[in-house]
Amino acid sequence: LISGRLVYDVRAPAITGEVRSSGFDLDKLLAVLPSSEAARAPEFGSFLKVLPNLDLQLQADSLSGFGEELRQFSVRFENEPDKVILHDLAFDSRFGQLKASAQLLDWTNTADFKLSGTLGELVVSSVTQQQAMQRFSAPLSGTLELSTSGADWPTLAGNLRGHVRLKTVADTVAEERISVDLEVTQQGEGITADLKQLEYGDSNLVGTLTFIPGSNPKFTLDASSDNLDLVALDALLDDPSEQAQDESQRDSLAAQASDVFDSVRSILGSPFQFFTGDADADSERFFDDSPVDLSVIKSLEGDLNVELKNIVSAESVFDQVLLTGDARDGVL
To answer: Please, what's the b/e burial string for 15-37 (b: 16 or more CB within 10 A of its CB; e: otherwise)?
Structure first.
């Protein structure tokens, strides 16, 4: 159901008004649009020049598409010469709430897109679909900045840069307090995550991770921590309510990143399984019989450098731990 009011001024030309919908399905709209070469998106220069003057408010109780649903969606479009502005962009989703503004600038041979806004009621256990981590259920809020530039639409989509700052509300219990300052840069198929700050309870971590997917995934990890509580971390990552996601529904990039994460975690943990393991009180052994899964090493290439000043475990406390390593051609 769509309702509203539109005014078209043929002299300008200009379109003003507002449109409301109880539900809007982007997938159905895209399915009926022409897909021929003639229907390709215009270049930036012609795209903004053919637009009429806009001052248009859109509202939808539900906006669905690409497997996601946005609730209480609203945005106001306005354009100027060589510029499209999005005012008061807002919606709720399963990840949380977003309120933002954005603009697309056309510089003839290239274009810049910038978005800045606030995030609220973001629950990490809803974002990380691989694990239903109930201990990560405290909502976070903060700020989000997105930007990209490029000479065409595919380049815009593949050159994203994002900066997010999040923290839990002040009254969150100490062991569940989280503070995150993260910058993510996408260049083609590769992704670089610069973790400027991560604090979870008494633990903290900073570092940089670069990941390039493909038949031979590549990664580099450089991280450090003043204090890392592996008991809390292991409980967080191995929540008993964890539910595996259907492999058919996993994005290939997400699947590869998850496999690399699990392997790196296994590699890092293998020499120190006694850090968080439930050691048998009657046994003098530190290492258990659980095999370390190294299957992904056959195709993985990477380097890691991790410096941990203090590690707290169920068994002991360790300090000045340095882990370095690389994986090449199936050799770790």
So the answer is: bbeeebbeebeeeeeeeeeeeee
